[in-house]
User: What shape does this take?
Amino acid sequence: MSVPGQSETIIELTGIRKGFGAVQALGGMDLVVRQGEVLGIVGHNGAGKSTLMHVLAGTLVPDAGELHISGKSKLAEYGIRAAHMNGFRTVFQELSLCPNLTVTENARIMHPEISGLNWRKQARALILDKLDQIFPGHGISGNDLIGDLAIAKRQMVEISRAFTQSSQAPKLVVLDEPTSSLDSVVSDQLLTYVRQFVKVGGSCILISHLLNEILNTCDRIVVMQDGRAVDERPTSEFNRDTLVESMGSVARDSQDADDEKAVRRSDEAKPLVSVAPNKTPAELALQVYRGEIVGLAGLSGHGQTDTLVDIFLGSARSKSADAGPMALVAGDRQVDGIFPLWSIAKNVTISSLKEFVRLGLIDPSAEQKLGETWREKIGIQTQDMNNNIYSLSGGNQQKALFARALGSKATLILMDDPMRGVDIGTKQEVYELLRSEAAKGRTFIWYTTEMNELEHCDHVYVFRDGDIVADLARQDMSEQQVLHASFE
Assistant: This one.
């Protein structure tokens, strides 16, 4: 089924449909993946991208459509085992590692052919060699328990495992938001390896809401809306604005953030929060004033999340001057964010329950009203807020966590890399919402691994080895300065 003059078609999907009750996740999706290319897939949260990847991985059976591998119809016999036997690997947005097993044991799960008395040694060498290739200096041991690793390192293990080879070489690796928890340096390591992988004949599908990653890495881009492909072109025919427009959003100039009026600190004002981690000198202590958006930067795992937790829990290292009620938007939503057995509405309103109490009982109509208000305000894509939180895509789950914090009475909101898996249109809306709320007196402390998001902050504190090593006002901040402070 390959087109003359093009590389061999590895897999082709035609008219794929998949519904979940009243929700039609895929409504006739067509997709072709060719050998030796990086195919980018973009679209808003709920466009069907992750559902499509589950079909490719064999973990979901479509309701209708055709699937061809190397020109032969395979849908009737396709599943997880068939996908693996054909060399198809998938790194899901919500990581699939077993948290109670070690790095070595998780590598062994993907390769049942590794057996015998020395299976552990073989599996350890397999995963550590691949980690060394993709992420040099990763600092991960084969004996590390997955559940004890930070989310960035868990993501590195999952990605590396997908590229490992024993009896079956990977031919197509699907990467669904692979850099969502990685800092810019580690992300660059991964994307460099991806280009090397396709150069020797492999293929990759890259799903990312970071459009620069898509434009700089992919050979061809497919845009999805409402479970269908609405645009497909070589990457050379796109730029950022046309790609955003194709997704159905209005492109906002990247310089707009620089033009916003930054909050100016007054010499008389007292900081709302003051934190000096570890050996940080007093002059570089994290100072947060009312109405500011303060960014935490630096390589991931260097103390930013720990600092947010210290502030949230009122640690001795954190001093506050009547900071008021606080809310935390967790970065690792599966572990620290969502309540998996609850509805979307209850996940959104849990921080505001005191506001709904009437005569000692919770008023369900008031609770429902708040949920609906934020469904419309932040664009949570669901037909019913009473559906389980897991009925949402990963990005829409993250929107629910935003709604929980912003819909509460919290005056100080802590955000731990909160834009993981959130589409570009929603990001732009959230940026404007944060600035609007800050103008009303709300205060935000924002750890982000996305360099361009720092442009929306009034001050940026750079972390290295658990300490603050630089304090940059917005007008003085640049990517070069942040990177220089991160490595110096």
Notes: The two ends are 53 Å apart (CA to CA).
